[in-house]
Fold each of these.
Amino acid sequence: MESSFDQQQQPADRVASGSGIGLTKRIIPCLDIKDGRTVKGVNFVNIRDAGDPVELAIQYAAQGADELVFLDITATQEGRKTFADLVLQIARHINIPFTVGGGISSIDDASRLLDAGADKVSVNSSAVKRPELVDELATEFGSQFVVVAIDTRSVPADDSFVPADGVLGIVHTHGGRKPTTLDTVAWAREVYNRGAGEILLTSMNTDGAKTGFDLVITKAVVDAVDIPVIASGGAGTAQHFADVFMQAGADAGLAASIFHYGEIPVPVLKQYLAHHQIPVRL
Amino acid sequence: MSLKNVAIIKYNAGNIRSVLFALERLGVSAVVTDDHAIIRQASHVIFPGVGAANSAMPYLRERGLDALMKSLQQPFLGICLGMQLMCRHSEEGDTPCLGIFDIGVKRFPAVEEHGQRLKTPHMGWNQLYNLRSPLMQGLHEGDFVYFVHSYYAEAADACVATCRYGLPFSASLHRDNFYGVQFHTEKSAAVGEKILQNFLAL
């Protein structure tokens, strides 16, 4: 039996040893969902229905995406029900972990999604509104289930106040449009202390610009907490991912359009990162 | 393989849906149960779990599932918390566990030996080495699987796959009909599917 194992295969060509810790950096495509359909267009050659999140998810999993994030941007109760049904179908069909977010403001909301097969839930505005939600979710389901999404800007979107000296980011809600008075780094530390298992940090300064991740705020948050940080907003090239991993210390990089439009296919990105000595799963 | 009669142990730890779906993708249906007779008659038993050792063990004891599981003769697979509960003791809540494997379960240190920070949970894709078990047949040294855990089983004789996160730990254990995996086979893409297939072929 044991002679059939390929025990001597050298692993060196499979992973570049960057951190020395062992874990690989994760590449995470994000899909926005409205009424059970993907919102942004996609440009995959092998896909029959570009609006079908399940088919897209299967495609991404096959390409080597490490995780997926599905954000429900539906505002209605009916849409929420559709989303829970969709989560069940996603769980049925994909064999990698996935996080779901959007409209989760209670244990019951999260419980429904866990039962449907979600690996993690992400909370954003609801945690800002009622920070105890993070404690409740962590106690009920464990920290590994709780992702806190933070949308940040270097200055308030509406110029309503000037941040104090040394404040690198201001937390925003409502898709990054509405400023709070929370210091992003302090808020990250607070949700970490309350039991969050991961932080999904989106810089609204760089989001959509494709000029690279916001390295300054990402590094500040990475340094402030002892949980993984997913960097989001601004990815335009493979080098941008290398930068956010090497310079800011992010644990994962998330993007939407560059993957959906096929600008940087996941396998191409991972080959690039491996070539640059960044540990990735190939 | 569709004739397999798989029982999944029902108890107060989550993640059962994902295991059911993973089996379904392999064309196998399973029953989720805490019924002793059904578990005894199963061809294969899976003991999954996401949760805490100190709340799981009292629940299992109250229902006599601890003694039942130890007495089973058919292929038995503990996943994640399931594998940890098969060990002797867990530092999580200072909990005596099933003792199928004479191994201690410890919490990852905050800092590894070279002074680098270790974030917990150990969450993400990491590699398997020193593979030696029918469960790992067809896998390659360095294959990736998905982990989410804050406690680890120490490296030991029963270890049939190791992983490294700051320190080496047991990614998989095997003794007689008992198998354990620390990672989530049901979330580990093709590699995880292969391991589940290997288990079902036992």
Amino acid sequence: MCGIVGLFLKNPALQPELGLLTAQMLRVMTERGPDSAGFAVYGGARHGQTKITVRGLVPSDMAAFEKGLLACAGTGVTFLSRDDHTVITVPTEHEKAVRQFIAAFGHGVSFVASGDSIELYKGVGLPEDVATRFNLAGMSGTHAIGHTRMATESAVTTAGAHPFSTGPDQCLVHNGSLSNHNTLRRQLVREGLTFETENDSEVAAGYLSWRLSRGERLDEALTASLADLDGFYTFVVGTRDGFAVLRDPVACKPAVMAETDDYVAFASEYRAFAQLPGIGNATVFEPEPQRVYHWEHA
Amino acid sequence: MSNMQEIDLAECTLRDANSQLQGEDVTGAWVIRNPRGRHALAVGLTAPVDVLVDGQAGYYAAGMNQRANVTINGNAGPGVAENMMSGRVHVSGNASMAAGATGHGGLLVIDGDAGARCGISMKGIDIVVRGSVGHMSAFMAQSGTLVVCGEAGEALGDSLYEAKLFVRGDVKSLGADCEEKEMTPQDLAHLQSLLDRAGITEYPADSFRLYGSARRLYHFHVDNAAAY
Amino acid sequence: MTDNSKKIPRTKPRFSATFDPFTISEIQRAAATGIYDIRGAGTKRKLPHFDDLLFLGASISRYPLEGYRERCDTDVVLGTRFARKPIRLKTPVTIAGMSFGALSAQAKEALGRGASAVGTSTTTGDGGMTPEERGHSSILVYQYLPSRYGMNPDDLRRADAIEVVVGQGAKPGGGGMLLGQKISSRVAKMRDLPEGIDQRSACRHPDWTGPDDLEIKIEELREITNWEKPIYLKIGASRPYYDVSLAVKAGADVVVLDGMQGGTAATQEVFIEHVGLPILSAIRSAVQALQDLGMHRKVQLIVSGGIRSGADMAKALALGADAVAIGTAALVALGDQSPDLAEEYARLGTVPGAYDDWQDGRDPAGITTQDPELAARLDPVLGGRRIANYLSVMTMEAQAIARACGKSHLHNLEPEDMVALTMEAAAMTRIPLAGTEWYPGKGSF
């Protein structure tokens, strides 16, 4: 039960402001989700490089971590730490080795997301504090998705915060409550997926990743979810090149979109749009139930 | 109006704003500046005042209105004018879900589109939407009138009681127990008066169709069991 | 030859435990009518209940208070979190929400009179507030339900508290149903429905779903009522830990937790008997949720569903509730199930103690009916007196137990004052099995 925001920039001139605009939208959604917050920012993709976001790396472990990374990926590795999250950029051919190293490292370090352009940050606390901790306002990029969480059935933890990333450059945020996620989780585990939390939204993310990994397009995977995911949901799904929106057939959870020549924005409530440039002239509409909305950079 | 009294939500709390408007003896014209999508704006008004919300309104704007004339100069969030008793609420932009939900009276005019479940469980309110309405509009609508100049989404008027639904454009599908009705001269006159009150002159009343309850669900019958 | 046949022992007709006579009659009824059985009252199956707990009483390690002489207070304040005008009850037992429509106007009036006489509250129901019940209830809780029948801001402001009903114990997740027989002209007018039709009401609120939207709804209700009224949130017991946590997050002043024994005016038998939690199993996790949020006693907890006596009340309070609510028991106190009505019950195909066709509107006691002749049988003044008597007895019973446990206030009862008689009750309440220090789940096996 939550607040969702998303911003997809059509006009590259706005890219330096992506983080600031997203942070403003996220803050407005505080009342919908005061427990935790998170966001994925897409951008800065470089050919042959993969970004890996990890969390829980503390300064005292940094030297050992760095040494291990150098051993499996050579000198092409770069780091950027923001609070307890670290984005590691590695040559793509070493991604697998680095992922294995991270999984084995221990010391409370866990993998968050990876891909060409995704960086993903999340934490417990008020959305504004979470955004400040990671300096969201200072980030630039092509598109971003954010979430503020009011936990329903699963625990208030960093792992339980959205977005959930279960595939390369993929992430999902959810407002609602799924009613068949336990059965679906068991099926997906049999298919070889692993889950970090008891959260229903992680199952939705895993489900989409599973379908994408079988070669389906995002719109196909989302359409299939209408048959397989039961309950109430508004999803916003991020991919390397864009984002998609889907609401369940009943569509009780709020969703509103605004489109201008410069951007497409998504939010749980209109008021999140208040500070977007040119919002007064935007086309504002509510996504229809059961319809996949999809925006992509060419 | 030149002598509008001003409330600036950038400078006062929602409680301050609403309490200034809620008294029985409040009069005149008011404007609420910087609403910024705040919820529960101008709710529970009881006096025949004019209130202009100058911008976006959040959930439940003008909720439970009695006698006041509230204009929202922008979009309205879910449940605008919910459970309105009397008076008038006018949204210049779009309204989100459940506009006019359970309203007992008064007139709600929406210049743009209304989202899903417009007029759900309405109990006497009149709603005029210049644009289109979303799915499940007028679900369980008990009485009153919903006028839609544009199109209606799926399952219009599902489980309808005695409300009347006038739609000019396409209806994606009718809900259980909702059917098209013959329009009587009284229906036409009623529709015309609502269009007049909403200031809609471009659509003639006879370009609408009327939908109402088939009354097949009023008493349980085993052959209708799937429709409950 | 006849002698010989007499000597052969005959096996007695044997009924199946699976296909027992009730089950068989239900299959026959379903096949004949094509509709599920709808009835009133609450679950009839045997469930773990307060009877499975006992108080320890005082002896040498603890000292009892002298009955009737030494003080044992019973007052409770509800709505201290945000409301500017919290409610003060003289005794922590209130009358649960029952609608005018489900009940006659006389019955509603009697409940109001009785509750007022002992300084407690009564509650409206799905169908709005009648002048009779407002007039006769010194403290009236106004229910805000999915149907919003009769909902209006004047009554909202006339109420002493507002109870946002998310669900009820008899049917968590289910909507309402009132059959045509009870939609009299007055009920129809209040609900804005055609007279005499079957009324279906929604299971979800029309303009909010989930705790994030609920928080906004509560803010609206507070803004309309000048932040004066306590806002209760009523939930059917299903996932009490999560639901109570979310009620607190959404801004409730008071949580009302209704177990599956709670009565209903009319619901599918299958819903009544197969959905929800017994109240005994729900209280501890609800209290745990409040404690985990640091809100125990700050957001008050009212529990209901099968509360019958001062002992039940004392046990609920000892488990951490702040008050209890009664519904079915109040109807019995008014005269429901009376042996005096045996002949009339027989004509309806039932017996005193088993009458549950509250939906039919033919209640010979004149309580669950809109028939003017039947309703006139209930004298609201006398009925009020019976309710007051019963509420007083419950209070005195609870005090008797509390004094025996050495408590000068009912709220000082605690889980440690009790033991469990069954493994089930011990597991559900985390109260040790009598004679042990242990409950299932404690320590390792």
Amino acid sequence: MVKEIEKTGIPVVHICTVVPISLTVGANRIVPAVAIPHPLGNPNLDAKDEKKVRRSIIEKSLEALTTPVEEQTVFE
Amino acid sequence: MKLELGKIQIQDVVAGAEEKIEANILYINPETIVDIVLEDDRLAECSVEIAKPGESVRITPVKDVIEPRCKVDSSSGIFPGVINKVDTVGGGRTHVLKGCGVMTVGKIVGFQEGIVDMKGPGAELTPFSKLIEICLVLEPKEEIEPHQYEEAARFAGLKIADYLGRLGESIEPDEIVTYETLPLQEQLAQFPELPKVGYIYMLQTQGLLHDTYVYGTDAKHIVPTILYPTEIMDGAIVSGNCVSACDKNTTYHHLNNPVIEDLYQKHGKELNFIATIITNETVYLKDKQRSSDFVAKLSEFLGLDGVIISQEGFGNPDTDLIMNCKKLEEKGIKTVIVTDEYAGRDGASQSLADADKLADAVVTGGNANETVKLPKLDKVIGQLDYVDVIAGGFDGSLKEDGSIEVEIQAITGSTNELGFNQMSAKGV
């Protein structure tokens, strides 16, 4: 999906737990997610701390989306 | 560590009032079995049914299969840390009831339990159609949670395999096979001219009913460690997982791991089998990185020349597999990976979710997406109403005439990644 959307000229950020797979399939902008069963949150945290985690992933993704890249890049 | 495995060939299983093994026939008392199972207050009902090879019987949803075993003249028991006290196993003598299995069946726990046919095209895809299966058909109490039911079902199977195994303690086995691995320095010195080979045993530990236990501990919390291979033959590793039926390792698979068996066969002839390194398949990237780092580090520390790596399950564990392979190869340790494929029903898609050019020696257990038509069989042990929703099933899998069309993913053990099956692919 990442590659098909990018073919149309729209940049894509792949938020993904298993970064090596994302690299293998060819995503250009990768933001690591939390864990496979809960990529965008963490049920072990309380609501306030979890919101922080979620916000940081989104902010990092937006930053990645607007950053020019020359090669596959992981935004740690 | 040296283990004598005494094999008692069971040619028939007879239900009745007596409990004994005589002239290679196992006599079981279903009432006693039910009493033992229902000691667990999380289970509401249990019935015992026997299915034999060639009978027109379909068993589903199958959770685990366990081979009855017992320690002989020993203070320790099989499945240590789970149903017997924690104690190092793998030495001394163990008796095995070959030719039969205890199978846990009944209302589904997750969505990834399997089908075992005792006859027809489905039977050809599972090794369990060749055993006399002692099925425990379980019904949980209504109020319990799925993970509690999974544990109760797991314990039920292990307890009955232990109970029936003990009937063989004083029986003279038909055959005794001895397996021995020496402490590291002695093992290295025993066959100094032969290549030093290890086995990397990946265990499914993704949580949410995808777990494996080592001496009773949840393997998702371990860092990779070393076991004598014979410990595994005594039940040091048990399955607690509801991963896709085709490529989960049941407890039976762990007890009879063919990679270990074959490495022992070549031990002292073609190679020096040094150790088994167990590792996990976790859901956090940093855990995957740490575990694969440890696998590579331990292999280097042991001075291995080559390893066989087996996987369990599919999808993101493909990354654990490739990470292990890559890090070992980068240390100059040769690898062969044993896996299976999800290449689409036509076999044309990418087989693994991850890949690397260093993974250049692969054994496959087959394509789990292949479909198979299973004709109606006369008897069902368990229940058919989950066939459409188990992994490998799809809307309309269960036909009105009682036949089933499913991906072979739904058949227990069909694409096993230890090579405990017939299917493979050969290429250059």
